[in-house]
Design brief:
Alkaline Phosphatase, subunit A; 2 domains; 10-stranded mixed beta sheet; 4-stranded antiparallel beta sheet; about 30% helix
């Protein structure tokens, strides 16, 4: 071999090494509180979660929506859940909603870039039609549950119907749910194609209610005292004080301990496979901790918790680790949201995003990689109507000001409670300045109203009980309608010939035409498609 050939070979090998893509793992945990790891003083053993913060970067101002389905929609699409019709509520078992098949999901871009993709855990983004199913949204493999609250021990059911599957086939695996997910993720990593990078999404059910834990962990935390401080949310603190049941804190601690062990198993698998330095890991909660009676979470010193738009409900615990690329024990103080994850991971891995619709999210990778601050150039909006039908918790905020608006409606009246905070000076929301800045309150409230007008009128709302007489299936796998049994086109619904006029007349009640642009509907120019376009999977 001559020198020129050797040089070309070395350059070729170097080029291949440079082009090698990192793996990606997203650990999304369910209802974990801001203060619920030992690194932040919690009386719970969480060495493996702690290690992600110690070996990586703490995302100190990372925001999710107040409840889980909207957070998952924002994560998967980079889009505002309000536009998707997925802002106010979670997908309940008796609902037939999901994310519109025209929306592009993050794993689809990774799949197109040559990644092998898998999801292990809780979906909660639609179950009634195969078009909403994980395997139709970019995941090669799906192991887990379509719903939430399936329990931590078999038979893993929701409303009495079995909800445990692998790629559309019902399974009967036995064991503690959190540990089953870890075992499956480890198995999938070990059996992957080592010539290709992977994208693994692990949305745990833990520590969501109803809480259950292995016996040894129940014993370990049996005598744990509940020393949590008030949340400063009137409804939550009132429920806590009126609770007739023992504190959920001990069993919650046991559930979180088990969660940490499961994450530790996956981290150990990365090490044994020799790929821990080749893998980007994002760890986050889907919303603030459930601090009400039965929840057991703690968001102190943040105010409020799950379901609310105080900081305790939306500013969530999060860390990002990529050894050799992100300095250990660092902090990122810029505001980042769940909508930023898709473009940021695409930026970190240098893969093209295949979405065609405009996303809200921003690529934060260069700022994260350089430990630099990046200004927030547009306001953030969140909302929730869960758990009380007709009571909306909303917010809009920028880097300085935040308006929390609680809107309670009945058949005869609407009450609006505005609370204004300077979150730059008062990040834990002690001082309501609404009376001092009425014009600012009016301006920000108007922005919330216009933002809420983007919600499709048939987007999901709070429905804590099913329609009268509704029955659950015996097996949720059989409930999903296969694609070949569905019509080719998305339905436009009633009155399709008059959609443009109706959409204009309805104004701020919501949108009839899906994903209508505000600049268009204000001028009456929103147009429904002349005929539905076919969506291919």
């Amino acid at each position: 071999m001559n020198f020129k050939t050797l040089l070309l070979l070395l350059l070729s090998v170097g080029s291949l090494a440079e082009e090698k893509k990192p793996n990606v793992i997203i650990f999304l945990v369910d209802d974990l509180g801001w203060a619920d790891i030992s690194l932040r003083g919690a009386p719970i053993d969480t060495p493996f979660i702690d290690s992600l913060f110690k070996e990586g970067m703490s995302l100190d101002r990372f925001y999710a929506t107040p409840i889980c389905s909207p957070t998952r929609a924002a994560l998967m699409t980079g889009r505002d859940p309000m536009r998707l019709g997925m802002s106010y509520s979670v997908v309940m078992p008796w609902m037939n909603n999901g994310i519109h098949p025209d929306e592009h999901f993050m794993p689809e871009s990774f799949q197109a870039a040559g990644y092998q993709t898998a999801m292990v855990g809780k979906w909660h983004l639609g179950h009634s039609q195969e078009t909403f199913h994980p395997n139709s949204r970019g995941f090669d493999d799906f192991y887990g549950h379509l719903h939430t609250e399936v329990g931590y021990f078999p038979p893993f059911a929701n409303q009495g119907g079995i909800d445990f599957q692998r790629n559309g086939k019902t399974i009967t695996d036995k064991g503690y749910e959190t540990f089953l997910l870890a075992a499956e993720a480890s198995r999938w990593i070990e059996n992957r194609d080592t010539e290709k990078p992977f994208f693994l999404y692990m949305p745990f059910i833990a520590p969501h209610t109803p809480l259950e834990a292995p016996e040894d962990l129940l014993i370990k935390y049996a005598n744990l005292k509940d020393l949590r401080k008030p949340t400063r949310s009137a409804s939550t603190d009132r429920i806590r004080s009126l609770s007739m049941t023992p504190s959920a804190r001990p069993i919650y601690a046991a559930v979180v301990d088990a969660l940490d062990q499961a994450i530790g198993q996956v981290l150990a698998t990365l090490e044994s496979e020799g790929i821990d330095e080749e893998t980007i890991i994002l760890f986050s909660s889907d919303n603030g901790g459930a601090t009400y009676g039965g929840g057991g979470g703690d968001n102190y010193p943040l105010r409020g918790g799950k379901g609310e738009t105080y900081e305790g409900g939306i500013k969530v615990i999060a860390a990002l680790r990529w050894k050799g690329h992100i300095a250990p024990q660092t902090n990122f103080s810029s505001i980042m949201t769940m909508m930023d994850v898709f473009p940021t991971l695409a930026g970190a891995t240098n893969i093209p995003m295949m979405n065609t619709k405009k996303i809200w999210g921003r690529d934060m990778w260069s700022a994260i990689h350089g430990s630099e601050t990046i200004p927030l150039t547009k306001e953030v909006f969140f909302a929730s109507e869960t758990p009380n039908y007709g009571q909306f918790h909303t917010t809009v905020f920028n880097e300085q000001w935040k308006l929390v608006q609680v809107i309670s409606s009945s058949l005869m009246e609407v009450n609006v409670n505005n609370q204004l905070f300077n979150i730059d000076d008062d990040p834990n929301e002690y001082n309501n300045l609404a009376a001092d800045y009425p014009k600012l309150v009016e301006l920000m409230a108007g922005k919330i109203r216009k933002w809420r007008a983007l919600h499709p009128i048939s987007g999901i709302r709070a429905q804590l009980v099913p329609p009268p007489g509704w029955r659950a299936p015996k097996d949720w796998t059989s409930y999903t309608i296969p694609i070949n049994e569905l019509q080719d086109d998305a339905s436009l619904g009633f009155g399709a010939h008059a959609h443009q006029i109706l959409d204009y007349l309805i104004k701020d009640h919501g949108r009839i035409i899906y994903d209508c642009k505000p600049t268009d509907w204000e001028r009456g120019k929103c147009k429904a498609p002349e005929k539905p376009h076919k969506h291919q999977h």
